[in-house]
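User: I've been trying to design a sequence by hand for this structure and keep getting stuck. Would you show me what you'd pick, starting by listing the structure so we're on the same page?

Assistant: Good idea, let's start from the same input. This is the structure you sent:
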């Protein structure tokens, strides 16, 4: 009850209605009492008790016109505002507006008031014989009350309309509607009704994507971010309840089958999507991909937001132990990486790898070693692809992300620890040409960092595997790698980025193990630098490549 009263007191209607009504009634009562104090006895009774046909006609003539004018103003203003919002965000706003109960109730109230006043005015009859005259006294009073309410409602209603059309609230309304349709349990529904719910949920995803695309075009980062978050929240809310839904919900048939994203798929892919029960996740991630393409090179923050949202969907699939949905998330992460590399958008690839690695670490912690190993294989592929495209920073980023995965695998005692290390050592096996040495140096630094981790843990054999992989390196190259890693003495990077760390940094306690590792290489003597502040490493990306972590 207390919550209900609080909600009522905080509503858009109560305060303005109360203030306007109190001020209006107080003014009228004060002035009327002053008038009546100078009138003959019985004046108060005459206020409502006596009314001639002329009085009624005069009152209703003005009342009906004012109510009709109010109705016209309300419809005109609302139509203009709604149309502008629909043009800017999504055409669905018009449908949402006229489906909203409050909007329908207010407009219906104005229409009823206008029609009621019209018929009251028609009912007034004046005859030569006063006994034959008819004055609908209560109808006139009712019209006055309706007119009063109409005038009082106008201001708060316009306030409600503007609030209704706030972009954030539009997005939230669409999201809630999509979730409601997706999670509504079937209770004797026909196939057509289930298909209608599927289409409503699908439509919600598409309209959210449309709002995001329009926001990117208008450089409105706030709205674009909210739409990405709304798509993510819709799927995350849906994921835990999939097992409770009617099997017919997961069928791709009827109008859903005619959707552009499904009609273009071959029967095998469509059948797998249906058997995996992942059409809604697939559709949501397709919307992400569409927004991702538009945001590339235009709004890096939205690219990062999409990567974060995709990771959250993956975590929801992981929590629900939905391997099929997780596999779909991984496919879209791979697609993001392909799009970023094709566009040569290094910051986009950097941000996607960061979120992709976070997901890989959670998968590894869950004990799904095979999935984590698959992700590591994808990392290796994109590192080698970036290497061939001379995107050195991407290859280096992948190497240090794989280093982090290998360290976590060791801490967890994962069954796939050795396979992950083998995968890591294969990253630099392709296209080793002189002009692409910079990215390979980054890979070697990541491998050296992992070797010092193993040595700190007393795992000599694992460190030796890395040494054997590097034993053919040139001494001068190894020496410079060692010196550069020793020169990095702080883990805080001097620029703002999402990771906020320096790739090559190793803790002072591991410096001794760094020396130990390099002692295994013969002919590696020469001056070494062990001191100095943060420096720009040799493997740093060019300025156009985005933020660098070390």
């Amino acid at each position: 009850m207390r919550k209900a009263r609080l909600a009522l007191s905080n509503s858009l209607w109560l305060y303005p209605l109360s203030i306007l009504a109190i001020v209006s009634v107080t003014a009228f009562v004060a002035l009327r009492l002053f008038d009546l104090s100078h009138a003959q006895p019985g004046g108060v009774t005459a206020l409502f008790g006596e009314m001639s046909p002329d009085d009624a006609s005069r009152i209703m003539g003005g009342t009906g016109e004012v109510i009709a004018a109010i109705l016209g103003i309300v419809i005109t203003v609302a139509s203009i505002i709604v149309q502008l919002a629909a043009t800017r965000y999504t055409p669905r706003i018009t449908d949402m507006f006229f489906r909203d109960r409050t909007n329908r109730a207010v407009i219906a109230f104005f229409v009823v008031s206008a029609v009621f006043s019209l018929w009251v005015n028609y009912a007034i009859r004046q005859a030569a014989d006063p006994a034959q005259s008819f004055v609908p006294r209560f109808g006139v009073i009712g019209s006055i009350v309706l007119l009063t309410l109409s005038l009082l409602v106008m201001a708060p209603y316009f306030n409600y309309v503007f609030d209704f059309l706030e972009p954030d609230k539009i997005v939230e309304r669409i999201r809630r509607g999509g979730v409601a349709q997706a999670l509504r349990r079937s209770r004797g529904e026909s196939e057509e009704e289930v298909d209608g719910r599927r289409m409503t949920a699908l439509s919600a995803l598409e309209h959210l994507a449309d709002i995001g695309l329009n926001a990117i075009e208008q450089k409105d980062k706030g709205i674009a971010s909210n739409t990405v978050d709304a798509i993510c929240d819709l799927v995350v809310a849906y994921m835990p309840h999939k097992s409770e839904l009617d099997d017919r919900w997961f069928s791709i048939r009827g109008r859903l089958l005619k959707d552009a994203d499904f009609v273009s798929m071959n029967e095998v892919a469509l059948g797998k999507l249906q058997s995996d029960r992942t059409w809604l996740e697939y559709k949501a991630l397709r919307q992400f991909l569409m927004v991702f393409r538009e945001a590339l090179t235009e709004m890096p923050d939205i690219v990062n937001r999409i990567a974060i949202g995709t990771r959250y969907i993956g975590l929801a699939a992981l929590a629900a132990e939905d391997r099929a949905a997780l596999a779909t998330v991984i496919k879209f992460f791979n697609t993001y990486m392909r799009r970023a590399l094709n566009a040569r958008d290094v910051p986009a690839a950097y941000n996607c790898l960061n979120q992709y690695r976070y997901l890989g670490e959670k998968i590894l912690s869950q004990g799904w070693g095979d999935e984590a190993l698959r992700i590591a294989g994808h990392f290796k592929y994109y590192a080698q692809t970036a290497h061939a495209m001379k995107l050195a920073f991407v290859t280096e980023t992948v190497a240090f992300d794989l280093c982090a995965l290998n360290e976590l695998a060791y801490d967890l005692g994962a069954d796939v620890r050795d396979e992950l290390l083998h995968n890591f050592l294969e990253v630099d096996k392709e296209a080793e040409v002189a002009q692409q040495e910079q990215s390979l140096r980054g890979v070697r630094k990541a491998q050296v960092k992992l070797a010092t981790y193993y040595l700190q843990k007393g795992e000599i054999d694992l460190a030796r595997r890395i040494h054997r992989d590097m034993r053919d390196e040139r001494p001068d190259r190894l020496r410079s790698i060692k010196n550069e890693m020793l020169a990095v003495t702080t883990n805080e990077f001097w620029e703002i980025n999402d990771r906020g760390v320096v790739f090559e940094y190793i803790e002072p306690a591991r410096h001794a193990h760094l020396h130990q590792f390099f002692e295994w290489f013969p002919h590696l003597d020469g001056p070494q630098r062990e001191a100095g502040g943060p420096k720009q490493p040799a493997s740093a990306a060019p300025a156009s490549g985005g933020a660098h972590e070390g």
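That's my pick for every position. To get oriented when you compare it with your attempt: The first helix runs from residue 2 to 9. The chain has 23 helices and no strands.
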